[in-house]
Amino acid sequence: GEIRAPVLVVSGEEDDMLHRTAAERIVRVIPHAASQDIPAAGHLCNLERKEMFVQILAQFTGQSWRQGGVL
Fold this sequence. Notes:
This protein has 71 residues and is an alpha+beta fold. The chain has helices at 20-29, 45-48, 50-61, and strands spanning 7-12, 33-38. 8% of the residues are buried.
């Protein structure tokens, strides 16, 4: 099946487990895909830079984000 929903690939700029070309490949092959790097984060960017990760997801999904708030 073909993926029809928007896709966001989020990766840490300092990820030494998943090469940057893997994220680029995903974005190339999935229609409506986009990528976002998180600076100063590695493979666990969602844990290392939690606030930035949540802000990126909130923007992508159209949700509002308040510092210290919950989506």
